[in-house]
Specification:
Number of domains: 1
Number of strands: 8
Distance between the termini: 22 Å
Number of helices: 10
Structural class: alpha/beta
Order of helices and strands: HEEEHEHEHEHHHHEHEH
Strand order of the largest sheet: 1-2-4-3-5-6-7-8
């Protein structure tokens, strides 16, 4: 854990940011065989993008209720002005980035990992040895799930205010009123699901499928006033990763689930750590 590092990272990322060109924002459409329909994705491309150069790739997954343009409207575009990396945000609805247990046309994990990834690799110049995945809330859970499930694909996983209790909520007889708004989407995905299916989407269990030395670097950021109580689950996940011998970083900041500190502290820190771990 490097608690003081967020200050240094924020200063580094903020230096001269106004004088640098922000990334180009592109909206692409692709047909997804995994969903049986056309989907939109947002792609942030460095202002000086050249197909002659290979760029690191960051999948930045949106939160529940967000969409492919979620991060294009935030300070992430400013931070990316000085980072030579391609950022992709796929539209994922309220899917939790899970392959549905029952529906063959709601295979969202496969959609991101295969359909979107293959499209981006064909259209953009990607360095496939330098790839990261991160997200906020539902996207934080999705990043952990997909990153742990596909450890050879990613070298870095970032979870910000990650809604990592999804599988616990799926089987809970009772839950907090604070999560009522997401319960229909969770119940729909896990309706009739087997224990094996639930376990395969439990981020507390999936990382054990990979030797600790082969897991990506994991960054977990959360506000200790998170109204969904996710700081408790995040602490527990960090403890589990430590006991397992995985390489991780845990950051608690003042603020709630969607507090501004996520962007002023945790995201700059996370981006700096991506550069360190991907070595660019």
């Amino acid at each position: 854990m490097r608690k003081a590092s967020f200050v240094i990272a924020a200063l580094l990322l903020a230096t001269h940011i106004d004088t640098l060109a922000q990334p180009a924002i592109r909206v692409d459409s692709l047909y997804s065989p995994s969903l049986g329909r056309t989907m939109k994705i947002c792609v942030m491309v460095p202002s000086d993008y050249s197909p002659l150069h290979k760029y690191p790739l960051l999948f930045m997954l949106h939160y529940w209720g967000g969409n492919y343009m979620t991060y294009a409207r935030t300070k992430l575009t400013e931070y990316m002005a000085r980072i030579p990396m391609i950022v992709v945000t796929p539209q994922a609805d309220t899917s939790w980035y899970i392959n549905s247990f029952k529906s063959k046309t709601k295979q969202y994990e496969t959609y991101v990992i295969r359909d979107v990834y293959n499209y981006v690799r064909r259209k953009y110049s990607i360095d496939t040895t330098r790839q990261a995945i991160a997200g906020l809330s539902m996207g934080g859970y999705g990043a952990l799930l997909l990153g742990f499930s596909h450890p050879k694909m990613f070298k870095f996983i970032g979870s910000l205010s990650g809604a990592i209790t999804v599988t616990q909520l799926a089987v809970a007889a009772r839950h907090s009123p604070a999560v009522n708004f997401v319960m229909p989407s969770i119940k729909k995905i896990f309706d009739g699901a087997s224990k094996g299916f639930i376990d395969s989407n439990d981020v507390f269990k999936v990382f054990h499928w990979t030797p600790p030395s082969e897991l990506p670097y994991v960054f977990i950021g959360v506000g200790y006033h998170d109204q969904l109580g996710l700081w408790q689950a995040s602490r527990a996940l960090a403890d589990s990763l430590r006991s397992y011998g995985a390489t991780y970083e845990y950051s608690e900041v003042q603020g709630d689930h969607f507090g501004p500190n996520v962007f002023t502290m945790d995201i700059p820190t996370m981006l700096q750590r991506i550069r360190e771990e991907l070595k660019f």
